Amino acid sequence: MRRTHAPSFTRNALWLTLLLLVALLIQACAPAGPAAPAAEQGAAPEAAAPGEPVKNALGKELPADAAPLDQQVLVFPYSGWKTFTTVDFFQAVYERADALSDILSDSLVRLDKDFQPNPGAATEWSVDDSGLVWTFKLDPNLMWNDGTPVTADDYVATFQYGADPAHAWDFSWYYQGVIKNWTQSVNGEVTPQEIGVRAVDANTLEFTTETPAPFLPAMLVYSNTMQKRALEEHGGFYNSDPATSVSAGPYKLVEWTKDQRLVYEINEQYKGTNIPYIQRLVVTNIGQPSQLLPAYEANEIDFVNGGGTLSPADFEIIAADPALNEQYHPHYGDFRTYYFAFDNTQPPFDNPLVREAFAHVLDRDAITANILKRQGIPAYSFLAPGFPASNSAAFAETWPLDVEKAKQLLAEAGYPDGEGFPKLTLKLRSEGPAPTAVAQAYASALKDTLGIDVEVTNMDFKAYMDEMNAKPTQMQFTLISYGMDYLDPSNMLGVFLSGGRHPWSNADYDALVKEASAFLGDPGERTQMFQDAEKILVDDAAFVFAYHQTPGDMIKPYLKGPSLEPDANGVAAWHWPGFSSFSDLLSGVYISNDVSDYRQAPN
Amino acid sequence: MARYLLGRFAGILIVFFIVSVVVFLLMHAIPGGPYNEDKVPLSPEAKANYMRKYGLDRPLVEQYVLYMGNALRGDFGVPFQSPTETVTGLIARTWPVSASLGFAALLVAIPLGLLLGIIAATRQNTWLDYAASATSTLGLTVPNFVVAVWLVLLFAVQLKWLPTGGWGEWYHYIMPVVALALAPMALTARYTRTSILEVSRSDFIRTARAKGLSGRQIMTRHTLRNALIPLITVLGPQIPNLITGTIFIESIFRVPGLGKFFVTSILGRDYPMIMALLLLVAVVWSVVYLITDILYTIVDPRVRLGKSKS
Amino acid sequence: MTTSTSLAPGQPVNTQQELRQRTLLGDAARRFARNKLALVGLFIVTALILTAIFADFIAPFPYDAADPVNALQFPSREHWMGTDEVGRDVYSRIVYGTRISLAVGLGVMAIALIIGIPLGLIAGLAGGPLDYIIMRVVEVFTAIPALMLALLLISVFGGGLYNVILALGIVAWLDACRLLRAQLLSLRERDFVLAAQTVGASKVRIAIRHLLPNAVAPLIVAVTIGIPVAIFAEAGLSFLGLGVNDPIPSWGKMVGNSLSYMRVYWYLGVFPTLAIAFTMLGFTFFGDGLRDAFDVSTNS
User: Which fold has domain C14-48+101-241+269-298?
Assistant: First the structure.
């Protein structure tokens, strides 16, 4: 057997090799032309004569300094061990392919870089006199790339999918208490069909809220629709395979190689208003966060999302290299605040004196100056400067660093010099280098000043959340963070409401936050109510607010466009919520012709 | 021999059974469930639905029987962490990647390790011995993830000879193979040296020397052959580890292999994936172990399989 | 080389036996003392143990005293090996880390030997059904990947130093068991055992007098390799956030943490790596020396 087969195999192999060689020769002799993807779009008007403006597949004119169309490719990294399963917010928020997802349809409302809500898939919206019923008019031009129109039914089906307890959506809490019957549906008390989202006609969508929710348009940034038909035919993962994927957004999914990369291409049938320059988006896997900067320096990726991934060593390298330093763009991130939290229902933290002692030990200035450097600013309260209703300066002297006072308070609480104080474990939720170092520094300070032994453990995300969410909570002492989901204090301050993340519970606080959230009157009065609530939070020393994260991203100099120009606060960065169709930032970026100094057109 | 092999296969089946039971119990003893609760707890109804969907609300015995029944029919279920594919599909796309890397590393590690070991043993207590020992010590003292990071900084960032990572081209193999091969190479070298020294002091080698055989003949015909026994024992268990992937190396070099799933499946309480991975390794390991035992009889005819002296 | 009188093994002459053992020990000590590398190994191991015991006197700073103002200082006269990301003295942490690393390395190997030696002996000597059962147990444990088993155990029982040692020990005993059995399998066919059998020595006697001493050498090598392997395994677990908790200074954890700092603050990774390397070298040389010194096969 083998003997007879062997020669023919060899002959075949020889032929193959020869063929390959010939092919290579032809390839080598051919004049260097545009790469394959661009060439395929024969009808595309990029064959314009020199001097004439170049237009992309959607007819958008590229700026004069833009690179050729085949170089209009953005390579965007993601890091971590997760295998992403979806690109749809309503399927699974924490299993999405990082920042470059939710671009296969438009959300109702779109933010600009100054966080102002603008029309997206909805052209206009209004609320009735009760403040409970909202009407959104859909853009009638929107089409799926299978040729069918985008209708209000698609949005209704999407919201019902999110409220369906069978789906067990990881973000179902988001609309709880806001959209009518949402909570009841998630709890299985009513059917998803009964939630307050309804199609009045093909282009009119109606939302009913539980209480007046003036922030609803801002909240509806997260309202990318899925297609009703595809959802029914293929289920919630239809966009995870290019074969079943369907798009009404600026891009369409063309490749998904699991654990390696996702590729989007511009959707020629896009009929919306968020028209991009960039032809092709490549989302590529960089396993370890520590490998992000090396890959960036090697021109393998165009962007590094710096929030929590860049290490102090990375910052040192960036600071030492003028070119890299210029490519670093600091911004607000998601207004994330890191804070130490206690289980105040159990000893020793049920004693306010103990919490106050802890609050006086944190040396915010030393920590920000020496550990965080560019990555954070001191936090004296929860809402970061720049966030609506932030009142940061007013709290700066509530719990200043005061070691003597702290010792005295701890002694009053019955633990002079830490005697008899239980050994603590400070738990972290799978954090990067910076928060870990902050926790270590605080643990050491507690030992030095109060004589309390603290071990720090950086736990696996899931194990941490399991302990956190256990009822009663098993999380005695932790450093944790929260970043906003939409730009309203009701979102940020809502995390401390009774029955939420922490066991801390305060009736006055709950009443203030709930009232302010639904308040329709004078915005100044509403802000005042939120600030009063925050004062309760800070005064009770229920939490020790440590720092506001100020992340920065690395952006290659050949990325240009209006999105990267300074915003109203002078911040020139590609910041939240800029990478999906939640905003118009992605469509305001192009690749300039400087790119040829850095890389070839990626495939 | 045939009877021995039959016995071994029966043994393998028993091992599978026990492994599956032990792991099934262990993994269900881990607190927490497989659902996502990254920000705010899921509603009890949603959790209950989730459990019902995957049959996790049933008694453990029933779950086990159901799982094994399906597994025997070739259905290993759907991984919770990647519900758009099947467990079989996931392993089929990732395992060949890890296996090719592992075999490449072995192909580099074993010959080099043998060479270093032989050099060290035949030139005992000379600078060659020390140099060879130092090289192999390096492989055992520096964790491979540290080596991996050094390699990236040197060859990708500094010299720009290679990309920092990726998969699909031949050059993507270079750095991960080097990082992976160091430890087994060092282990091979070390055990080879020790065994050769051991064996060369034994009577039959002295006899051979007395018979007037040349050093080289003794080395190839007698010493090396006998020195291979402990080596096989030690190297055998390394092979399944190597060819089923390693999370550290694969994540640093962006190799889309099986390695990370050994960790993520436990962290994510991905029960179907945990079971499948363990059964997979059990199969690989049983095969390797069987080969190891057969190899013993080849290199040392005095080892009689399955027979006790009495 | 053969210094002892050529006694027929197993001969029941007690006084001569004692005499022979005394000379054997003396020979071993003499041979060990002649081996320079072995002495270096002995020196390193002794130094490590002394460092672990007297860490409080050797280390210039406490291992857990953070000083953010002096974070990430390069090596200087005050901080010989620099300071880490929160300003702790790296040298002091390495000195104290000796305790943790020795505890992990020795603890894991102790558990491994306590479980592995008896089972390996029984399997290798008894053969038959006992061997079969033990080997199936070994297979079950070996068939579960070490990292995964350790992860499973730690996920069930929780992390921390003691659980990590226990989990790694439960994973590590297999090598000792298999090695011992394989060695016995090979040895029991050798001439001197056959000779002892002919003389009528009991099985247990043969095992303890002849087989075990002959199998000790590879075991020692396995232990010297197992110690740094255990230290590494602990590093890997710490890398995944499941190992020893901060501020407890484990070298493995220090190396793991240093990865994101390595490009600039090289000393954070280099010194703990060196500490591990020296420990490894020490145990290796020491183990090799012991093996050569007690080389029983030259006496048979």
Answer: MetI-like fold (1.10.3720)
